[in-house]
């Protein structure tokens, strides 16, 4: 098919057609590079386990406002040329020029610009936006554009395989080429005959699952020597395929095998040497369900599995039972995910060309077989003004600028296969999206799982896609619509009207989302009218990618559509060293909510110490939801993630890369509900991950046992291990023991706490008297006291009880009569805070944020906590107590200063309200590990194979914030 966009762009009168490019950020006669301060940096990366230097480039040049993380990732991943040679790029200027000037030349060569001045404005605006981290192209652009390598710009690919051996072998070959280039691909295997059908020769077919083994082995081999360490791929099978049950159970059965091998002493950790013997580990699996199946699940009826050749039903299964098996397998190993076929194809702009049958590895790109998509993402925080209003007009202009650049890239791009090149040039699929949504919501005082948060996200997404298609229609007038538009015109226009209708029904909640929605409404009006006249340049325009590496390049706090990962971040410093700091979005959010500077500082200091906002001084409970995070003490509920996806999905051409995280305690039925609600809410695809469902954990030492066993075997020794069984022993209290009784009142309810001690002073029993003798409440308190007492006597640390029972919320709650604990959220909260103050050392309870009134008073005067009795006299303490009780709220806060690592002399500056930055422990190397330190729970993420840093979630993949490596998504 001939590419229409290559035609001449001169009108009959001889005047040149082309788009007019408007200035957004730049000034005539001033280059963007001249407006920033540049500095020299040294980028040195070491493996934190071995100390080995794995990368070193000194004297690289970056703007002074770029973080160390961002400059490190760009230097190590995107600078081209051999390290240590003259041809190696050493400045961000060189990188941006290499890409931008190639785009400008492509635009000129293919007639995109009305005048040479428009081309220059385009160059300057694109340069400014990249320089100031307003947006970023996907990684292949930075890898390849402007180099001698093929001009590969796409990160997402969809392949096709037919029911023939030639096609299957070609699948292996094409997939290998894509993996070799560092990208990922997806495909649907449903055309391949099942193992329950016959071949033309009379034999039985192998079935798609058997061919998955060969593809998995190929991916596992290529990933070791290719551009990435893990070959990213997606395998999809339709729910009516006769081999669907075998497909569903493949990875769950392999997980059982991993457990058995691990228990036998083999190294089955992530990256372990024996894990390669397990199959199907290099792909994400998804089941493609249709509305017929989901209705059968809803109604509890039978569902037919169909032969591939003639479509006849060869077996009937119980739909609910099959659906339960999907959820069971996902509960065990996180696979398979689910894709909703009817919803996907209902929003398909090119049905006359073919159905959408598959997706890329992360499920955000869904389009025709043998196609590709290049991506770019906007940094939403860059459009939030100082007065906390969203600059919708600039957001729309930047979207139009970036879409123009993305479409230009297809005109000069190279592709891994001829089929992909033909489809992409004829349909010109683009994938513009955004990052930092979680940070934007927090900064503007919106909870992620709230009506206001979802309304704002939906309005922004609607404006994004509306602006993208508006420019696409304008480009169609200049360089023509995409080649496949004519045969799909009615369908494409129908989908545009569906987007517009979804925008019209969007319910706004606040002034901010109402203003954005108004701009989106105007944009969609233009889209529909211009499309009728000109058609569209692009079959697809938008999606939400994980933005892992490019998110760090733009110094985003959050990736893609994700909420904030944690409130405290791990930050590298220029010159070496690292620190933990509270997100600077938090002070901005607190100011937006109306808190005064003194309160902001106190809350931020509390977050720096605790890692969460629960019981932060002066913070209203109704504001807690604004600071909810992906993991931690106030983790967002699974359906909170699903509802956010549902709010934005109607405004996207493609889908959303996101995994719904569930706690380890989640049930199979809860996973069924998430999958079912995803269908009800109109999602295109969904994946889940239950904490700790994978055997291979990132920080275990499972390999040592295998190594020792092998060494003994090689030496001809039979190692006999002595099995020691450990059991807890109860340490009973002496007959006569010291005890202390405390009377207390919580929220008007009065009670008594008696604590008995061992001779060494350790707590051994408690008795709680609350309520009338013989009442149900009194009986429950007696039983609870006995249970806690027996636990203490069997060696359960008091700290454990304190951690579990403080912050419990139930009535009675409120003011107490205890000067050390002025407020309590429940009786249990008060009792265990009192026990901590009476029986734990200062360091233990300080870590949990439990201090006496005297210690808090000293903190106000000195800026640091000290244990009781350190220096002050009894009279001083009483004076401090009296002044503390007379001054509520607190009116004096210490001056907060950032500590400096010994090897770093440069001053560290933070925004207003930032807590004291603390030098990070040498044992902490990423935000994921920092969260583990704070929360005491495992961030179930793999170790980066490049630099050894703990990775963090990004969409349905993981990304390393140390070097930018990903687990599969570009």
TrEMBL record:
<dbReference type="InterPro" id="IPR013678">
    <property type="entry name" value="RNR_2_N"/>
</dbReference>
<keyword id="KW-1015">Disulfide bond</keyword>
<dbReference type="InterPro" id="IPR000788">
    <property type="entry name" value="RNR_lg_C"/>
</dbReference>
<dbReference type="GO" id="GO:0050897">
    <property type="term" value="F:cobalt ion binding"/>
</dbReference>
<feature type="domain" description="TSCPD">
    <location>
        <begin position="727"/>
        <end position="837"/>
    </location>
</feature>
<dbReference type="InterPro" id="IPR013344">
    <property type="entry name" value="RNR_NrdJ/NrdZ"/>
</dbReference>
<dbReference type="Pfam" id="PF12637">
    <property type="entry name" value="TSCPD"/>
</dbReference>
<dbReference type="Pfam" id="PF02867">
    <property type="entry name" value="Ribonuc_red_lgC"/>
</dbReference>
<dbReference type="InterPro" id="IPR050862">
    <property type="entry name" value="RdRp_reductase_class-2"/>
</dbReference>
<keyword id="KW-0547">Nucleotide-binding</keyword>
<dbReference type="GO" id="GO:0000166">
    <property type="term" value="F:nucleotide binding"/>
</dbReference>
<feature type="compositionally biased region" description="Basic and acidic residues">
    <location>
        <begin position="892"/>
        <end position="902"/>
    </location>
</feature>
<keyword id="KW-0846">Cobalamin</keyword>
<keyword id="KW-0560">Oxidoreductase</keyword>
<dbReference type="GO" id="GO:0004748">
    <property type="term" value="F:ribonucleoside-diphosphate reductase activity, thioredoxin disulfide as acceptor"/>
</dbReference>
<keyword id="KW-0170">Cobalt</keyword>
<dbReference type="InterPro" id="IPR024434">
    <property type="entry name" value="TSCPD_dom"/>
</dbReference>
<protein>
    <recommendedName>
        <fullName>Vitamin B12-dependent ribonucleotide reductase</fullName>
        <ecNumber>1.17.4.1</ecNumber>
    </recommendedName>
</protein>
<dbReference type="GO" id="GO:0071897">
    <property type="term" value="P:DNA biosynthetic process"/>
</dbReference>
<dbReference type="Pfam" id="PF08471">
    <property type="entry name" value="Ribonuc_red_2_N"/>
</dbReference>
<comment type="similarity">
    <text>Belongs to the ribonucleoside diphosphate reductase class-2 family.</text>
</comment>
<feature type="region of interest" description="Disordered">
    <location>
        <begin position="858"/>
        <end position="902"/>
    </location>
</feature>
<dbReference type="GO" id="GO:0031419">
    <property type="term" value="F:cobalamin binding"/>
</dbReference>
<comment type="function">
    <text>Catalyzes the reduction of ribonucleotides to deoxyribonucleotides. May function to provide a pool of deoxyribonucleotide precursors for DNA repair during oxygen limitation and/or for immediate growth after restoration of oxygen.</text>
</comment>
<feature type="compositionally biased region" description="Acidic residues">
    <location>
        <begin position="868"/>
        <end position="882"/>
    </location>
</feature>
<feature type="domain" description="Ribonucleotide reductase class II vitamin B12-dependent N-terminal">
    <location>
        <begin position="43"/>
        <end position="133"/>
    </location>
</feature>
<keyword id="KW-0237">DNA synthesis</keyword>
<feature type="domain" description="Ribonucleotide reductase large subunit C-terminal">
    <location>
        <begin position="154"/>
        <end position="689"/>
    </location>
</feature>
């Amino acid at each position: 098919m001939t590419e229409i966009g290559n035609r001449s762009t001169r009108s009959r009168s001889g005047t040149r057609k082309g788009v007019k490019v408007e200035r957004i950020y730049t000034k005539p006669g001033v280059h963007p590079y001249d407006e920033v301060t540049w500095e020299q940096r040294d980028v040195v990366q070491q493996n934190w386990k071995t100390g080995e230097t794995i990368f070193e480039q000194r004297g690289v040049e970056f703007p002074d406002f770029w973080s160390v993380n961002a400059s490190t990732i760009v230097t190590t991943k995107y600078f081209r040329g051999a390290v240590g040679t003259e041809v190696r790029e050493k400045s961000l200027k060189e990188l941006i020029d290499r890409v931008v000037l190639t785009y400008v030349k492509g635009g000129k060569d293919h007639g995109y610009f009305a005048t040479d001045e428009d081309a220059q404005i385009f160059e300057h605006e694109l340069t400014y936006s990249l320089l100031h981290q307003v947006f970023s192209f996907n990684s292949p652009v930075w890898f390849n554009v402007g180099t001698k390598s093929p001009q590969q710009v796409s990160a997402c690919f969809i392949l096709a395989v037919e029911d023939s051996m030639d096609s299957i072998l070609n699948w292996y070959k094409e997939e290998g080429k894509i993996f070799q280039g560092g990208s990922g691909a997806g495909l649907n295997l449903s055309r391949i005959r099942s193992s329950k059908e016959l071949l033309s020769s009379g034999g039985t077919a192998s079935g798609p699952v058997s061919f998955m083994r060969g593809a998995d082995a190929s991916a596992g081999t290529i990933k070791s020597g290719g551009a990435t360490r893990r070959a990213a791929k997606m395998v999809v099978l339709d729910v009516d395929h006769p081999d669907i049950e075998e497909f569903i159970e493949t990875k769950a059965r392999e997980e059982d095998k991993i457990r058995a091998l691990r228990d036998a002493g083999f190294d089955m950790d992530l990256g372990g040497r024996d894990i390669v013997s397990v199959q199907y580990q290099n792909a994400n699996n998804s089941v493609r369900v249709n509305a017929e199946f989901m209705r059968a699940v809803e109604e509890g009826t039978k569902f037919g599995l169909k032969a591939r050749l003639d479509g006849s039903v060869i077996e009937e299964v119980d739909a609910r039972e099959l659906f339960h098996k999907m959820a069971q397998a996902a509960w065990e190993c996180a696979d398979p995910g689910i894709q909703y076929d009817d919803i996907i194809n209902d929003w398909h702009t090119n049905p006359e060309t073919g159905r959408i049958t598959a997706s890329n590895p992360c499920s955000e790109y869904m389009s025709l077989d043998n196609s590709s998509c290049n991506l770019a993402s906007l940094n939403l925080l860059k459009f939030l003004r100082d007065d906390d209003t969203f600059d919708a007009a600039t957001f729309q202009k930047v979207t139009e600028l970036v879409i123009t650049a993305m479409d230009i890239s297809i005109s000069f791009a190279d592709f891994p296969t001829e089929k992909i090149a033909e489809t992409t040039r004829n349909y010109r699929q683009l994938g513009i999206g955004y990052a930092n949504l979680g940070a934007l919501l927090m900064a503007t005082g919106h909870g992620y799982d709230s009506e206001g948060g979802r309304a704002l996200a939906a309005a922004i997404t609607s404006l994004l896609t509306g602006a993208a298609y508006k420019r696409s229609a304008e480009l169609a007038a200049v360089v023509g619509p995409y080649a496949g538009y004519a045969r799909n015109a009615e369908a494409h226009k129908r989908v545009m009207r569906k987007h517009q209708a979804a925008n019209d029904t969007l319910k706004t909640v606040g002034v901010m989302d109402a203003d954005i929605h108004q701009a989106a409404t105007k944009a969609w009006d233009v889209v529909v009218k211009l499309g009728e006249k000109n058609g569209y340049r692009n079959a697809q325009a938008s999606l939400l990618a994980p933005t892992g590496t490019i998110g760090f390049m733009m110094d985003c706090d959050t990736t893609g559509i994700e909420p904030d990962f944690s409130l405290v971040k791990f930050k590298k410093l220029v010159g070496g060293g690292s620190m933990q700091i509270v997100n600077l979005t938090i002070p901005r959010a607190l100011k937006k909510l109306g808190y005064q500077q003194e309160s902001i500082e106190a809350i931020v200091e509390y977050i720096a110490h605790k890692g969460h906002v629960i019981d932060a001084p002066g913070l209203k409970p109704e504001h807690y939801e604004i600071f909810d995070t992906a993991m931690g003490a106030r983790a967002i509920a699974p359906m909170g993630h699903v509802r956010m996806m549902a709010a934005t999905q109607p405004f996207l051409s493609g889908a959303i890369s996101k995994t719904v995280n569930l706690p380890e305690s989640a049930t199979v039925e809860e996973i069924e509900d998430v999958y079912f609600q995803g269908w009800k809410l109109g999602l295109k695809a969904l994946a889940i991950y239950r904490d700790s469902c994978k055997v291979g954990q990132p920080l275990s030492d499972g390999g040592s046992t295998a190594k020792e066993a092998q060494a003994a075997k090689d030496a001809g020794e039979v190692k006999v291990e002595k099995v020691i069984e450990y059991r807890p022993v109860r340490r009973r209290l002496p007959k006569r023991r010291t005890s202390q009784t405390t009377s207390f009142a919580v929220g008007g309810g009065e009670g008594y706490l008696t604590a008995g001690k061992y001779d060494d002073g350790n707590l051994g029993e408690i008795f709680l008297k609350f309520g009338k003798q013989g009442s149900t409440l009194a009986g429950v308190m007696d039983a609870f006291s006995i249970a806690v007492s027996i636990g203490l006597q069997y060696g359960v640390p008091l700290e454990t009880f304190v951690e579990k029972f403080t912050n419990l919320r139930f009535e009675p709650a409120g003011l107490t009569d205890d000067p050390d604990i002025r407020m309590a959220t429940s009786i249990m909260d008060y009792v265990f805070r009192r026990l901590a103050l009476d029986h734990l050392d200062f360091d233990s309870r300080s870590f949990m944020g439990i201090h006496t009134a005297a210690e808090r008073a000293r903190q106000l005067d000195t800026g640091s906590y000290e244990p009781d009795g350190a220096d002050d006299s009894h009279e001083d303490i009483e004076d401090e107590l009296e002044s503390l009780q007379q001054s509520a709220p607190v009116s004096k806060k210490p001056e907060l200063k950032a500590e400096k690592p010994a090897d770093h002399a440069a001053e560290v500056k933070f925004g207003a309200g930032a807590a004291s930055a603390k030098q990070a422990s040498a044992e902490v190397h990423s935000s994921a590990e920092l969260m583990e330190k704070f929360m005491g729970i495992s961030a179930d993420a793999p170790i980066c194979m490049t630099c050894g840093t703990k990775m963090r979630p990004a969409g349905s993949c993981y990304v390393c914030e140390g070097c930018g490596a990903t687990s599969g998504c570009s």
